[in-house]
Specification:
The chain is about 40% helix and about 10% strand. It is α/β, with parallel strands linked by helices. α3 packs antiparallel against α4 and α3 crosses α5.
Length: about 160
Amino acid sequence: MSFEPIKLKSLKDPTEESDGLRILISRFRPRYLRREEENWDEWWKELAPSKSLWKEYFKDRKIGWTEYSKRYIEEIKDNPEALKVLCKLSSHFNNRITEKSHNAHSQKEEHRTSEENNYLIKFKVVTLLCHCKDEKYCHRSIVKGMIKDSQIIEF
């Protein structure tokens, strides 16, 4: 079994120690969960789909997965705050992967990365959370792909 630094989970899945930093990427706070029972460390609403896109795909079922994916990626690319947090995650994981495989980072580059991702440094794993049960048809799978393929999120 290979190590996966980015995990995807539904909010209803049990919390595990191996989850690392748990980031909720949903627009809406789950009503079924009392505040003292929140099971995430960070809440990045900027990575959630817009209310209108969410409504068309999840609630009204007016569009399918292909259209939803395309429009979600367009929304993210047009959202500077979303791009900013995606770049942080992408930089953190892609630098870590590069460092493991090439072991050729300069100290200056490592210092810059640690400053940008100060709170991420202590986490080897990030778990992206959402309400959706099936990760294959959830925006968190798109976000994971965008993090891995950093070219898609370049400014």
